[in-house]
Amino acid sequence: MKAVIFDLDGVITDTAHYHFLAWQKLAQSQDVHFDEAFNENLKGIDRMGSLELILAGASRSYSDAEKLALADSKNAHYKTLIAEMSPADLLPGAVAALDWCRAQGLKVGLASVSKNAFTVLESLGITDKFDYVVDAATIARGKPDPEIFLRAASELGVDPADCVGVEDAAAGVTAIKAAGMFAIGVGQPATLWQADTVIPGLEQFKNMMETLCKTGASSGSCS
Ligand SMILES: O=P(O)(O)OC[C@H]1O[C@@H](O)[C@H](O)[C@@H](O)[C@@H]1O
Ligand SMILES: [Mg+2]
After folding, report:
1. Running DSSP on this structure, what letter comes out for residue 107?
2. ipTM of the complex
3. CA of 8 to the centre of ligand 2 (A)
4. Domain identity same for 102 and 180
5. Is residue 159 located within the same domain as residue 77?
6. Domain containing 48: what range?
7. Is this structure's pTM higher than 0.90?
8. Rg, the chain, Cα only
9. What strands, in cross-sheet order, belong to the sheet with 3-6?
10. pLDDT tens-digit readout, 77-120
11. Most buried one in 59, 75, 146, 214, CB count within 10 A?
12. Are residues 178 and 155 in the same domain?
């Protein structure tokens, strides 16, 4: 393996909860039922894709202009929720995982479909820990399409088969597998059943990677 490509929301920081709160408020404003179980379907899905899924439960149809206005209002709310983020919002094990990759000589990429990813990385103080961060605005097809992971691998100069992807969302794991990479799921095995292996959080990342390197389970050997 030569590179590790991380998702951001729900893997490195708990912005997944802020997305949930912002979508919940929007759904309530449109009288659409919304709960944690439904939100699971939105994880990893881009902004307009998520909005379409929510509005599918509404009693009326929406014009493109209305949809854009709703997406803008969700994003404005989301931005107020992330405004106070700081390095204290890093999930346990996140910095250690990123630093371990670099110490091993592995390339480190970020593949988030969030257009707020650069802002969040800056607030967390970890921008310089990545060799390449995909700009979500340049991605045509969101997860579960593999485009974003393939772009990261290409920009890092690494064959997708030599990459490990790390994801908390089912759609993200599907994208990693479709890109031909080894998938580490972060969360519940029942949700992330497509992943090659699942860990509860990044605190277990280093041990998992060392085991993979020893057994050659990913792609033969490490860097
Ligand atoms: O609205 P943004 O910040 O561009 O984010 C898009 C998506 O980014 C993903 O990382 C999140 O898992 C989704 O929940 C979110 O909808
Ligand atoms: Mg995520």
Report:
1. E
2. 0.98
3. 6
4. yes
5. no
6. 15-82
7. yes
8. 17
9. 132-133, 107-110, 3-6, 163-167, 182-186, 197-199
10. 999 999 999 999 999 999 999 999 999 999 999 999 999 999 99
11. 146
12. yes
